[in-house]
Amino acid sequence: MFTGSIVALVTPMDDKGAVDWASLKKLIDYHVASGTSAIVSVGTTGESSTLSHDEHGEVVMRTLELSDGRIPVIAGTGANSTSEAICLTQRFNNSGVVGCLTVTPYYNKPTQEGLFQHFKAIAEHTDLPQILYNVPSRTGCDMLPPTIARLSKIKNIVAVKEATGNLNRVSQIQELVDDDFILLSGDDSTGLDFMQLGGRGVISVTANVAAREMAQMCALAAQGNFLEARRLNQRLMPLHQKLFIESNPIPVKWACKALGLMATDTLRLPMTPLTENDSRVVEQALTDAGLL
User: Catalytic center at which residues (predicted)?
Assistant: First the structure.
């Protein structure tokens, strides 16, 4: 369940900014039909930073309800306060989620020892499998391979989502962890290369709008058919790049609406709608990928 194309699912909202449950069901059905391996609910792409704690819990639980056992659900449970991250994680004990994705603490800029103690404390308060999430471009904090290796020795820390885009990290981490520790890419542009170096899948933004294609690409890579996987990935490359022309999830929510996957591309402040110029760029990327 922690392999292949795992979608970092958007949280659809209506024109007043409330969660749009009908569109959430439509998105889940789309991913089930497209072969997506799992859903990450309320991660960065799911706008965890602007949902209240109650909304956060409700979106994850409704995602579980609407998926109805057809696709595994991973809960985003990161916070920059260790106690808050523990509370978020414990909320989903015995809920049906298959694991938690927990980002490095943002803004605080902890030391490597602080990162180790943060994730160790979370893991000690749950039996749920834990996926570490390293994305320094958004958090201002980089969890280094030796720290990941130390954490990998904790029984229920089973994987890392490495989103630096630095492919050297794959071998650096692999040299330090056991073979059963799972490496997942968090960067669509380098995701296939990451898999060719030994990664097991991609937690993907692109999968929101190209679910079948991302699932096929990851399946081909898992089979060792990198020639066909690369052909497909090249078609998706404009999307991998242009879906980050503005801060995620601004472009991908616009793209979801453009493809009819949800009713609006509403975001909550401080995120603002995709500009007219950039919407043309994203539209062209969707066309180039054969989706429009």
Answer: 133, 161
